[in-house]
Design brief:
The protein has 74 residues and is an all-alpha fold. It contains two helices and no strands. It is elongated, with a radius of gyration of 17 Å.
Length: 74
Amino acid sequence: MEGKTFQDYTNKLKSDLKTAVMGSWAVWVPAHTINFAFIPPSQRLLYINSIQIGYNVFLSFLGNKKVEEEPKKE
């Protein structure tokens, strides 16, 4: 668990979950629409796997982004 606390993981989820979900919708809804409307059945797996590579890069950058520390209130 990378030596992180539960609070670190909670902060990471709060920071990145919205971006990940919105990114997923922005990528996969159009990708599957195009896939089933225009891509021949024999090429659909190749098309989706190609999109998946780019999406995994996005998730990797998002997952490795540092979470900004909130200033402590006194």
